[in-house]
Design a protein that fits this description.
3-stranded antiparallel sheet, alpha+beta
């Protein structure tokens, strides 16, 4: 008897803006083929999708769930899935990617009302809602999409407010589904075995710990853990950890005036030379050089957004 075909899982990273962790992908290029992909994928952030036309299926592990035009989907980071259209059709989508923890910082803490429901929901969402049955949610998503596309005055504030309303509605739906025991995820052979390690790295990247600890968290031998990790992430556990540290250092370099040495220590590197070497490999420049480049880009973006000329900016700085 031949062995069952092994499911391939692919990791996709979306770089969200630092000060406004929301990204929109929309337009005529976002059609989904009717050819089923041979692999599942998962993201580093939460995905909101809205289907504009035609129909198809979203598959979580081996369970296909149908969708049609007017449906809205919510898929948490690290939830493996794939999408394909009905045979002969080509469904059109818009997608919004976001980090709700950063967007709602200070609102949904552990001590906030129903904070545990929010946390559980953001970790386990794999929801398809029909627009005709959830008109308020559909309306909120379309308004958010419109704000992100048109970028009118104070659109970021509008998006945050609409997102907050959306998540309150979602929490009620999610809590109701869970109470009825229809939102529980069944254990499956194709669940992401390295999930505990990914979560630990995300929360503790600044600490020094052996790879053996990550393997133990996943209940795998070191050899098996390294092999599975590389199959899914296309990189080694150590390289993924260092990449996480470098990405966090980019945030500090771009948003603070702390020294290179201080930042290297904060993100977990034992020496500034090691930090410089890894940073240069990942970002193509030394930390100081990269910081200066980002400052120029950020200043140019601010001037473009506000409509200031260089002379106006200089005049304002002298007031």
């Amino acid at each position: 008897m031949s062995k069952p075909k092994k499911t391939v899982i692919e990791y996709r990273n979306y770089e969200l803006p630092i000060n406004f962790p929301v990204l929109v992908l929309t337009g005529d290029r976002w059609y989904i083929s009717d050819v089923k992909s041979g692999k599942l994928h998962f993201h580093n952030c939460l995905e909101i999708g809205i289907c504009h036309q035609d129909s198809g299926f979203i598959e979580f592990a081996d369970e296909p769930v149908p969708f049609k035009a007017g449906d809205v989907t919510f898929i948490s980071r690290n939830v493996a899935h794939t999408s394909y259209s009905t045979k002969g059709e080509s469904s059109l989508w818009s997608y919004i990617f976001l980090n709700p923890d950063d967007l709602f910082k200070g609102i949904f803490g552990a001590s906030s009302p129903y904070g545990e429901i929010y946390y559980d929901m953001t970790q386990n969402l794999q929801m398809i809602l029909h627009g005709s049955e959830h008109k308020e949610i559909y309306s909120l998503v379309t308004q958010i999409l419109s704000e992100l596309v048109n970028k009118e005055m104070n659109y970021q504030i509008a998006v945050k407010g609409l997102m907050l309303s959306l998540f309150m509605k979602l929490m009620r739906v999610y809590a109701g589904q869970k109470k009825q025991s229809i939102a529980q995820r069944a254990a499956h052979d194709n669940d992401i075995a390295i999930m505990p390690a990914l979560e630990y790295i995300r929360e503790n990247y600044m600490l020094n710990f052996p790879i053996e600890d990550l393997a133990n968290m996943c209940h795998l031998s070191q050899t098996h853990f390294r092999r599975v990790f590389h199959e899914i992430m296309q990189t080694s556990p150590l390289d993924y950890l260092n990449t996480t540290r470098i990405l966090q250092s980019c945030i500090l370099l771009r948003t603070t005036e702390e020294s290179i040495l201080s930042i290297s220590e904060q993100v977990g590197f034992r020496s500034v030379s090691s930090f410089n070497r890894h940073f240069s490999e990942k970002m193509g420049a030394q930390p100081g050089e990269w910081r200066r480049k980002m400052i120029k880009i950020d200043n140019a973006s601010i001037m473009k957004y506000t409509g200031w000329t260089q002379a106006e900016k200089l005049t304002e700085s002298r007031k």
